[in-house]
UniProtKB/TrEMBL annotation:
It comes from Jejuia spongiicola. Coiled coil: none annotated. InterPro entries: DUF4136 (IPR025411). This is DUF4136 domain-containing protein. Keywords: Signal. Residues 1-26 form the signal peptide. Residues 25-179 form the DUF4136 domain.
Amino acid sequence: MKKTLKALPFLALLILVSSCSSVRVAVDYDKNAKFGEYKTFAFFKTGIDKAEISDLDKRRILRAIEAELLTKGFTKSENPDLLVSLFTKSQQRVNVYNNAWGYGGWGWGGFGPGWGWGWNNQPSVSTRTQGVLYVDLIDASKKELVWQGMGTGYLSQNMEKKELRIKEFVAKIMEKYPPGAQQ
């Protein structure tokens, strides 16, 4: 029983860390679009310029999208079948954890009063940034949105982790294109 109690904090941390790394994805698309006919793409500068993120992050996202589309057999073109646009949203999430157990508790022990492990009335507060990335695919001839992928997850401020996280977001979103394809 004591081993189980000692393993609980580790298990909780493992669950927390693994849940943070996931990207939740949703897609929507025009059921009448002929996705098999789209072979070329270009980036829709007007739409991309409106995304409220740093130019560095825009370039990271665009490189990741380009890599995914090239892997799917698309060709970048001056006269594309699809225009690719994106936009983002982010929000700060504040987590307050108050389990009243941990270091810093004041109490009486075998040798009198002192600090140490025990009950602690100070809550733990952390903030994280939750981001949403939308990838829009627009039929270039009709100027109509035919597919939209949305990925939601937590972001990192660390540059190396951020680049990996962006690639993960884009890969998870683009897994869902084209609609109906078994991945």
